[in-house]
Specification:
Largest sheet: none
Order of helices and strands: HHHH
Shape: globular
Strand content: under 5%
Length: 86
């Protein structure tokens, strides 16, 4: 995060700025749908996200976003498999 000393935890305001940048970036990814489209439409939001959050937070949020998408896809696939098995 800009202006944050590495050994110091981010302030409440810095965390809120990071979370807001993350949320805007995720909204763009969700709206774009395709990973290929995501890369072109959401580049600027990604830069803002990375500039407002620490590297470890960015890595954590990227994993969390990917896992959340994975979780959302699972019930649909399980329901399809169950329906096709009958």
């Amino acid at each position: 995060m800009p202006g944050v000393v590495p050994d110091q935890a981010p302030s409440k305001l810095e965390r809120e700025v990071c979370w807001h940048a993350r949320d805007k970036y995720w909204e763009c990814l969700d709206a774009a749908g395709s990973p290929v489209v995501n890369k072109t439409l959401c580049v600027e939001l990604r830069k803002v996200f990375e500039s407002n959050c620490s590297n470890t937070w960015v890595k954590h949020f990227d994993r969390r976003f990917g896992y959340t998408r994975f979780q959302k896809s699972q019930p649909t696939e399980i329901n399809l498999a169950t329906t096709q098995a009958k």
